[in-house]
UniProtKB/TrEMBL annotation:
Biochemical pathway: Carbohydrate metabolism; hexose metabolism; Carbohydrate metabolism; galactose metabolism
Enzyme Commission designation: 5.1.3.3
Organism of provenance: Polistes dominula
Keyword Transmembrane: no
Catalytic reactions on record: alpha-D-galactose = beta-D-galactose; alpha-D-glucose = beta-D-glucose
Descriptive protein name: Aldose 1-epimerase
Pfam families: Aldose_epim (PF01263)
Key words, A-Z: Carbohydrate metabolism, Isomerase, Signal
Length: 381
């Protein structure tokens, strides 16, 4: 046991040093911190990053969760464009659909919650019918992360013990958040492991560029471009069948600017909740590439998403309550309803550990998992 703790400590030191080294190239910005309650018997802190463009981002240590993104529109009016809650109690409630959270150890779904690595079968917790979703019953979005400020970045770290939710290997994770003066919110997620284990992290931010409380009325006006030429076909439980299908001549083709309100009700399942595959580029390797662009014409707010991941889950909040209900009580007394936001969850393909034709998702000792994603915000007329 002492040897395991020593290995875990060395992994933590190695990962923290790596994250800090990466952050030194970033321009230093104003970062403040305040107490924000407690969870799991541990204190929770909120970090606020600010830049010279009047933009602000709030992140809490519970779930390494982004709780707010405040941006001016083309008239200078500032709105929070991220769905979330006013205090920690909201994030601890059963009403929380992973608002803004860092999701792991494996984001999205694993069929039957089982997989085989090197001939060994593993059973992880199942929390959505017979399947596993977003890391299981108490995945990383339900844990309090450690945090530090280093050279203009907020670095959050987490130790996931061997056997956590049934997963093999002790894993050290970090999520580094930076906000540049040109409006780029960057997240770098890294992990090391002591045993072979599947890893697939994502951030589950719910965006509405018109403002977090404007719901479907404004989301339907958003124009989206998704740089994806294929998608992973799923069954009735949203589990991939293994087929990767072209988006050409289908409702899944969003490669040209598309108004969400024109297509959302034509999508099977009542909206988008599918993994889209970015174009393969063998020369590009693990480098960043364009994922999506989103624009809200009346406010002028624009968001560009870039990542090094092979896929992205476009989710249009189909599972939020219907408009004829009381909805979810969110920030500032606003109620959130179905189609009130969109998520662009950069990721590996869902259930990749069970599909040999999907990109590899198994991390082995000595290897580094590195996931980069940036959301660049600005004004576009």
């Amino acid at each position: 046991m002492a040897k395991i703790r020593h290995i875990n400590f060395l992994l933590l030191m190695q990962l923290t040093a790596f994250a800090m080294a990466e952050s030194k190239s970033k321009t230093i910005k104003l970062i403040t911190v305040q107490s924000w309650g407690s969870a799991n018997g541990k204190p929770v802190d909120k970090y606020t990053l600010k830049n010279n463009a009047g933009q602000e981002v709030d992140i809490i240590t519970y779930g390494a969760t982004i709780t707010g993104i405040r941006l001016p529109d083309k008239h200078g009016n500032v709105e929070d464009i991220l769905l979330g809650f006013d205090d920690i109690s909201g994030y601890l409630s059963s009403d929380n659909p992973y608002f803004g959270a860092t999701v792991g150890r494996v984001a999205n779904r694993i069929a039957k919650g089982s997989f085989v690595i090197d001939g060994q079968k593993y059973q992880v917790s199942r929390n959505i019918g017979e399947n596993s979703l977003h890391g299981g019953i108490k995945g990383w979005s339900f844990k309090v992360w450690n945090a530090t400020i280093e050279n203009g970045a907020v670095i959050m770290t987490l130790l996931s013990e061997d056997g956590d939710e049934g997963y093999p290997g002790a894993v050290i994770a970090s999520a580094t958040f930076t906000l540049s003066n040109d409006g780029e919110l960057s997240i770098e997620m890294k992990t090391f492991t002591t045993k072979p284990t599947p890893i697939n992290l994502t951030n589950h931010a719910y965006f509405n560029l018109a403002g977090h409380g404007t719901n479907a009325e404004e989301l339907y006006k958003h124009r989206i471009v998704l740089n994806a030429d294929r998608w992973t076909v799923t069954d009735a439980d949203s589990i991939p069948t293994g087929e990767i299908r072209s988006v050409k001549n289908s409702i899944m083709d969003l490669r040209n600017p598309t108004v969400l309100g024109d297509v959302i009700d034509k999508v099977p399942g009542g909206g988008y909740d599918y993994n889209f595959c970015l174009p393969e580029n063998k020369d590009n390797g693990n480098k960043n590439r364009l994922v999506a662009e989103v624009h809200h014409p009346s406010s002028g707010r624009h968001m560009t998403v870039v990542s090094n991941q092979p896929g992205v889950q476009l989710y249009t909040a189909n599972s939020l309550p219907a408009s004829n209900t009381t909805g979810i009580l969110g920030k500032n007394g606003k109620h959130y309803f179905r189609h009130g936001a969109l998520c662009l969850e950069t990721q590996n393909y869902p259930d990749a550990v069970n599909h040999p034709n999907f990109p590899n998702s198994v991390l082995r000792p000595g290897q580094l998992y590195l996931h980069t994603v940036s959301y660049k915000f600005g004004i576009k007329n």
